[in-house]
Amino acid sequence: MPRLPRWLLGSAAALVLAGPAAAAVPAGEVIVSALAGPPTASFLARIRAGEMGGVILTHRWTPAEFSAATAKLHATSCEIGRPLLIFVDQEGSSIRRLTWAPPSHSESQLGRLGTAQTQREAAAAASALRAAGVDVDLAPVADTLGPGGFLGDRSFGSNPSLVARLAATFIRAVQAGGVAATAKHFPGLGAARQSTDDHIVSMRTTPLGPFRSSIDAGVKLVMVSNASYPKLGPSGTPAVFSHAIVSGLLRRTLGFRGAIVSDALNAPAPERTPDAPGRALAAGVDLLLYTSASTAHYGYEELVADAQRSAATRAQLARAVANIRSLKSWLGRSC
To answer: Does residue 77 contact residue 328 with C-beta atoms inside 8 Å?
Structure first.
């Protein structure tokens, strides 16, 4: 009998130890793992083992490579009867996974070009994304740019009203094309001078208007940032772990009813946080995003272990999975 890969042995052992109560809730459905090239046999085996509910495609692809990869990913997930969500960053200009598709302008350029051009490019982007097998565009950036903000041309601008109007326009156009849009990075990173992908960041104030506008426009996902906001979440933890920010501000105060996705949980702040996937889930996050396959695997194993020990974790997983399946239903994604 061939020897099983070490990662698969660990997953199987974790599921056996977890027992029926934990195994009844599919922990992998909340995990989003990264893929930088054509899927390998081991990556596809992880999908078949139920380790992930989504894949974010990173780096560069040709149109043929991209379409072949998404077709293979969708087909593999349907082997276990669980449709997969495919994510990309298609903000505009240099931040495009489909380099051959719109938006050709950056958000700051669209901020100057206005509503009509934003609507045209977002609609064209949705058409290309849908044809390529993509479900979720991790855009638009709904952050209002502050002086020296690291986001630069990734923001529509420094006027919250302009950002609110164009974010809503982008969202409506993308979603009219059958692709789910994502308002990010809640509650705002526009004034941050360093990226949370590389640094520990704490924010003082941030305009919420563009996120209100995005929610009013019916955005299907909101991405929560890894920065901390002491005035909004008194614990001082990163927003992704803050119940006050995720379940309080975003869900109850702003009334968001869609799926909540984390920013990269392998970034510095969450990576230093014990039990990061469980804490994000407890805060109210539904989808746990990782920009490396290895850290996604470890996150999955942590959740399986948590579900073994905790009825609360199993309840939180059930809530998250319900929100994810509602998103899949809207997308028409089934097997």
So the answer is: no
Catalytic residue among 153, 263, 286, 306: 263
% residues pLDDT > 70 (the chain): 93
Our count of domains for the chain comes to: 1
pLDDT in the model for residue 205 = 82
**Cα distance between residue 52 and residue 293, in whole Å:** 10
Average pLDDT over residues 135-145: 98
How far apart CA 291 and CA 135 sit, in angstroms, is 17
Indicate whether this model's pTM tops 0.85. Answer: yes
How high is the pLDDT of residue 5? 33
For residues 87-101, give the mean pLDDT.
96
pLDDT of 292 over the 70 cut: yes
- 189-222 in b/e form (b: 16+ CB < 10 A) is bbbbeeebeeeebebeebbbbbbbbbbebebbbb
Identify the domain containing residue 126 by its residue range.
Answer: 37-331
* CATH code for the domain in which residue 138 is found: 3.20.20.300
In a domain, 16, yes or no: no
Instruction: Tell me the residue length of the chain.
Output: 335
What is the bridge-based pairing of β-strands 136-137 and 85-88? Answer: parallel
**Is 212 inside a domain boundary?**
yes
pLDDT of 12 > 70? The answer is no
To the query of whether residue 263 is one of the catalytic residues in this protein, the response is: yes
> Rounded to an integer, what is the distance from CA 227 to the centroid of its chain?
16
Does the residue 11 lie in any domain?
Answer: no
**How many beta carbons lie within 10 A of that of residue 230, not counting itself?**
12
Interval 25-62: pLDDT, tens: 689 999 999 999 999 999 999 999 999 999 999 999 99
Q: Is residue 124 part of a domain?
A: yes
C-alpha–C-alpha distance, residues 93 and 263, integer Å = 21
Measured CA to CA, the distance from residue 24 to residue 279 in angstroms comes to 20
Residue 157 phi, psi (nearest 5): 155, -170
Cα–Cα distance for residue pair 281/271, rounded to 1 Å: 15
